[in-house]
Each structure stands twice: as C-alpha cells, then as structure tokens.
Amino acid sequence: MIPEDTYEHTVAQYWYEALGLAVSEIAFEQVTHKKWRAEVPPFLDRQKIEALVYVHLHHVQDSLKSTLGLRLMETDILEQRRFLDELAEKLRPWWQHLGAIDQLVEMFAPGGGHAFQKQLPPAEPAP
C-alpha cells in the first residue's frame, strides 16, 4: 500500500512506466510483424508513440536479429508489465472507487499535458 503523502508521486511513476512499456511493446510489435500485440493504456496516444518508435526502429531491429534477442526483449516486456501491475495493485485504494487505474492517471494530467498523453476532447460549455 502507498501512503497518502507519496501516492501522487507513485501515480506519476506509473504513467512513466506505462509509457516505457508502451514504447517497448510497440517496437516489439513492429519487429515481430504484429505477432506480438502491444497493449497501450487508454491515457497514452499510440500514434505519437508509434512515430517515436519508427524513428529509432532500425536500432531495435539490429538488436533483435537473433532468437535470443527476441526472447530477451519479450522477457523484459513481461517484467515491465509485472512491475506496472504491482504499482497498480499498490495504488488500488486510490483508484478502486474510480473503477480503473487509468482514471486515476488521467486525473493527474487533465487536458493531455504530456507529449504522449492522449488529448482529451474539449469540455462542453455549460448551458
């Protein structure tokens, strides 16, 4: 469990860990020609992450030419997922009433304030 005085920091850490995992998964998805399917959280903009990955994809492809390289990358992604799941579980008291951790993460970055955050639609004006 995360104490109240550090949970905002932990939510930020969750966001950055989720971004790192999404980058890894999208790169792996590209290298495996979509045999691996990336799971991108709804609060991140997949298209922006794909653009970043595309710029650096040749470096990733070089390191994943062997079966061992592919297995190492897959193992690393699974470990990243486990860590993210552990963070989510520790934050459960803070997001449980919201229904999912995604809503808690979005609360700390309203309006898509981060480069890779999905832009929220503008609020409807009050009548």
Notes on the structure:
This protein has five helices and no strands. By secondary structure, the protein is an all-alpha fold. It has one domain (4-107). The mean pLDDT is 84.
Give a quick rundown of the structure.
The chain has 127 residues and is mainly α. It contains 5 helices and no strands.
Supply the key terms.
mainly alpha; 127 residues
Fold topology:
Layout: H1 7-31, H2 46-63, H3 67-90, H4 92-95, H5 101-107
Q: Which structural class matches the secondary elements?
A: mainly alpha
Distance between the termini: 42 Å
Largest sheet: none
- The averaged pLDDT comes out at 84
| Low-pLDDT runs | none
Instruction: Estimate the strand proportion.
Output: under 5%
